[in-house]
Design brief:
The complex is a heterodimer of chains A (about 120) and B (about 110).
Chain A lengths: L3 E4 L2 E4 L5 E7 L5 E8 L3 E10 L2 E4 L6 E7 L2 E6 L8 E8 L10 E2 L3 E5 L1
Parallel strand pairs in A: 2-11
Antiparallel strand pairs in A: 1-3, 3-8, 4-5, 4-9, 5-6, 7-8, 9-10, 9-11
Chain B lengths: L2 E3 L4 E5 L4 E3 L2 E3 L6 E7 L6 E7 L6 E3 L2 E6 L4 E6 L8 E8 L3 E3 L3 E6 L1
Parallel strand pairs in B: 2-12
Antiparallel strand pairs in B: 1-4, 3-9, 5-6, 5-10, 7-8, 8-9, 10-11, 10-12
Classes of the chains: A mainly beta (about 120), B mainly beta (about 110).
Chain lengths: ~120, ~110
């Protein structure tokens, strides 16, 4: 199994508070991704990173920011959480050429509830 | 539009039945990759297969097989002699400018 951990695994927070989710990998893979999973929508890409300090937006990036200061860590921040951001968040990693061609390997997920 | 459609929201079968999960995609690209992932009740996402658009040969891995047909833009997944452990949500995915997943098919295999 790919060495990917996510923290926290569960979080309950209140509307308007900032939240940061962390993804940590031990595989030294170049690409890292954040997805959200909601019923009826499959997984949707929020942001991804193609290197340290290099990031790009995905399909549903509004309300989220990311940072990658080290190869192994990719942070997802909700600056002011809203109830619509209640979801399960998955981190993924890949190596080689990027999101179009690579197999992505997923972390265990973080269940976030915004009250 | 570029997208992935899994029209079967839920399928229920009895153990040992064969079952096919459909995946239909749309893309204007001539070179692309398709994926299947499994999400068991425990919640993790497990990679099953990656296929590029130049390889239309059917793939078989144990009880799992995949039928890729560019002519009908389909990449269907068949489980032969299903088992209770096959119960999961299965996602088809097509990376374009980013990774696009289908909405998933929930398969329930009853003993």
């Amino acid at each position: 199994d790919a060495g990917i951990t996510q923290s926290p695994r569960h979080k309950v927070t209140e509307t308007g508070t900032p939240v940061t989710l962390r993804c940590h990998q031990t595989e030294n893979h170049r690409y890292m991704y954040w997805y959200r999973q909601d019923p009826g929508h499959g997984l949707r890409l929020i942001h991804y990173s193609y290197g340290v300090k290099d990031t790009d937006k995905g399909e549903v990036s509004d309300g989220y920011s990311v940072s990658r200061s080290k190869t192994e860590d990719f942070l997802l921040t909700l600056e002011s959480a809203t109830s619509s951001q209640t979801s399960v968040y998955f981190c993924a990693i890949s190596d080689h050429r990027g999101p179009i061609t690579d197999t992505q390997y997923f972390g265990p997920g973080t269940r976030l509830t915004v009250l | 539009a570029q997208k992935v459609t899994q029209a079967q929201t839920e399928i229920s079968v009895v153990e040992k039945e064969d079952v096919t999960l459909d995946c239909v995609y749309e893309t204007r690209d001539t070179t692309y990759y398709l994926f299947w992932y499994k999400q068991p009740p425990s919640g993790e996402l497990v990679f099953l297969i990656r296929r590029n658009s130049f390889d239309e040969q059917n793939e078989i891995s144990g009880r799992y097989s995949w039928n890729f047909q560019k002519s009908t833009s389909s990449f269907n997944f068949t489980i032969t002699a299903s088992q209770v452990v096959d119960s999961a949500v299965y996602f088809c995915a097509l990376p374009l400018d980013d990774m696009r997943f289908g909405a998933g098919t929930r398969l329930t295999v009853k003993p």
